[in-house]
Specification:
CATH class of the largest domain: Mainly Beta
Low-confidence stretches: 39-43, 59-70
Number of helices: 14
Shape: elongated
Number of strands: 21
Strand order of the largest sheet: 7-8-9-10-19-16-15-12-13
Radius of gyration: 43 Å
CATH architecture of the largest domain: Distorted Sandwich
Largest sheet: 9 strands, antiparallel
Structural class: alpha+beta
Strand content: 15-25%
CATH topology of the largest domain: Beta-galactosidase, Chain A, domain 5
Mean pLDDT: 80
Distance between the termini: 161 Å
Length: 608
Amino acid sequence: MDRNSIIGLVLIFVIIISFAYLNQPNETELRAAKQQRDSLTRVQAREDSANLVAAISQVIKTDSISTEIIDTAASNNRLGVFGAFANGTESFSTIENEEIKVTLSNKGGRVYSVQLKKQKRSDGSPLILFDGPTNDFSYAFATSNSKAINTSELYFTPQKSAEGKTLSMRINLSETQYIEQKYTLTENENIVTYHLNLVGMENIIARNTNYLDLNWESHIPQQEKTFDAEDRATTVHYRYVDDEPGKLTETKAEKEALKTPIQWISFKQQYFNTTLIADKSFDNGNIETKNDESKKTVKTLSASLSIPYNHGASESFGMKFYYGPNHYKTLAKLNIELERIVPMGWGIFRWVNTYVVVNVFYFLNQYVSSLGIIILLLTLIVKTVLFPLVYRSYLSAAKMRILKPELDEIKAKHGDDMQKVQSENMKMYRKAGVNPLGGCVPVLLQMPILIAMFQFFPSAFELRQQAFLWSSDLSTYDSIFSLPFMIPGYGNHVSLFAILMTASSIFYTVYNNQMTGVTGQMKWISYFMPLIFLFMLNSYAAGLNYYYFLSNLVTIAQQLGIRRFVDDKALHEQIQESKKKPVTKSKFQTKLEDIAKKRGVDINQGKK
């Protein structure tokens, strides 16, 4: 490189350095440039963020569509032609009259809840027989292409009639192919007429299917004040066609297979029931009760029933729902023996309740509004009818009391020879014309009435939430004082009617022991029994304790009246006259003497 080239390069370098130095920005220009760069950066960031959000939204939208497509495809694959009805939103429709309000869900086309409009729970809230998604009423069947269908998964289309009393729930596969559940409610009744209609299903339902499975389950809520009382009364009742009703036990969880045609199934609560009645019959079924350990509900009741299906072009299976109280006369009018779910006892006790007590009670209820007064009148009627037995019992006890000195002489004379004592006692009874069991027989004849009342009052729907005196509800216990602790076998409350019943029982026992001359161990046992009943009946219906209290008072009054008009001296003279008459042994007296002799022989052999 020559000298001129070097000089030229140096001059160019000096010019560039000089130009850069002279044109560099000042501090103000630098700050302005920085702000411009930052602004451009923020704008770019917002644009990038917006683009990212849009991209994500597009992805989500695409994924949702894909998921929906996948779900629909899965439903179609699993449910076949019914897959299109597996997706939807649950909605509710109602039909109601003056008695009940029925809420139906389009999911499953089933009854979702039932409210009894004229009834209240013990806390005053509306009375709902059952409610919520945990309850079930659905059908299961197989299709011709081996798809397992359960209507609880399907969404039905509701169609309400113009008058609003009929509601149809449909799945329309086509105009000529549909499943319909049709509900009809009439005025002033607790009955909903129901039809399952299958139209054009003969080629869709599997050819080897001869019946549909009806699955019914209900979680029974607590309605009354006492959980244990409801638990003791809640179970499944049923009736075979042309047979007597049956039931599962109330005291434990149980299940049973019903192998012959069934007319009705009833989910019974303490004072209400939900009953499914077939127009013809269910082929067979299974029923079950389950206890709720958490006590959030009383019990879970379930039934699985078989509905016949004959593959006709159009088939309809008719049923009825009864939603209402366990009112004996109302249930009896249905003429299907549904009144048998009301506990009235068994054998003679049921006969007394159904033919005597119930009719007298309902007759009085037509003219008297106060249930307390009705129970009083019922007590007076019953005790008047039983008065001849009370009179005979008193006379027998009086004769035994008059003969007691002579019987004591026989015992003192023969000492430990029990055979001789029994034999001489029998001779004395025979001569005096006294039956030693004469006082027991009238008492035994009164027992069916007492036991029948024990069954009647706790189950009488008329007593429910009826107040009298200090009791706010005669169907459950009355409480005048709540204890701060629980007494085993008694509870944590004090029932005044139970105390009055016990006090009157003790007074009657003392009076009766004085009349009959009972001594020793039997005397103390008779005093102990009323205390046992105090513990037993403290949590029972106030109406029952009230009746027993009145019954004791009337019995005491009757005996005091009889004692006033029966002359012991004249009775003693009558006995003495009887001793002078020729004696003939009756078969009963002969039997008593044979028993006494045998007992005496056994006693003497035991001593040896």
